[in-house]
Amino acid sequence: MNQFIVLLQKEMTESIRNGKWIWLPIVLIIIGISQPLTSYYMPQILEMAGNIPDGATIDIPTPSGEEVLMGTLSQFGMIGTLLFVLAVMSVIAQERQNGSLTLVMVRPISALQYIGSKYVAQLVLLLVAFFLSYGFTWYYTNLLFSDVAWTVIISSFIVYSLWIVFVVAVTIFTGTVVKNNGGIAGASILFLGAISLLTSLLPRFMEWSPGNLRAAASMVLLEGVWSKDVWMVVSCTVALSVLFFALAVWRFKRFESYNG
């Protein structure tokens, strides 16, 4: 346990030194608050854009707070996933390239402790960044549109956060298989994109898919409760995340044995 704490502290320190705790929350906050601000000022934006006939009026129905937040979750789709992968992709590859991985593994450290420290540290970073972004978005949504209960926000946050849990598990596993950052990012994004695409193309057969988490979080926003479909997606995502984490530990054990 002591080794795990030391490794976790090392990972958190490295995340601070390389600026992840600065640029990632800022970028996610900008992406998040852009949705309520754009929705609120859309008539003015269209008027400034021009090409509107004289005498024409712009009448855009005012969305509810829940609808604005649903749009925010859509904003976090591909762009958010790309940022999550980019933030995690180098956690193993960088230590392989600079040789520090060999120095770490000569100590009495297990593969579970090593992969676990990487996973927990990156997960804390991404969840805190997403929480800050979602919190600012909720504030501006309540300010500009209708109020959304904080209990609903927390529930939808928990549901969508499982996508981050899944993305981190997939990316770290890929990092134990692929050695360079570009390959890790490409393989991870390709796999996650395929999951999302298949979920859209085959909804009947992919009801369990993690690609349905955004829809599940949106359902929680609208209904305020976790339906049977939401629980199914949540359960399957947790199971798949545990599976990819276990595969990462197993794969890293093989790497450790090979280099030992």
UniProtKB/TrEMBL annotation:
<feature type="transmembrane region" description="Helical">
    <location>
        <begin position="114"/>
        <end position="136"/>
    </location>
</feature>
<feature type="transmembrane region" description="Helical">
    <location>
        <begin position="230"/>
        <end position="250"/>
    </location>
</feature>
<keyword id="KW-0472">Membrane</keyword>
<keyword id="KW-1133">Transmembrane helix</keyword>
<protein>
    <submittedName>
        <fullName>ABC transporter permease</fullName>
    </submittedName>
</protein>
<feature type="transmembrane region" description="Helical">
    <location>
        <begin position="148"/>
        <end position="172"/>
    </location>
</feature>
<keyword id="KW-0812">Transmembrane</keyword>
<feature type="transmembrane region" description="Helical">
    <location>
        <begin position="21"/>
        <end position="42"/>
    </location>
</feature>
<feature type="transmembrane region" description="Helical">
    <location>
        <begin position="73"/>
        <end position="93"/>
    </location>
</feature>
<feature type="transmembrane region" description="Helical">
    <location>
        <begin position="184"/>
        <end position="202"/>
    </location>
</feature>
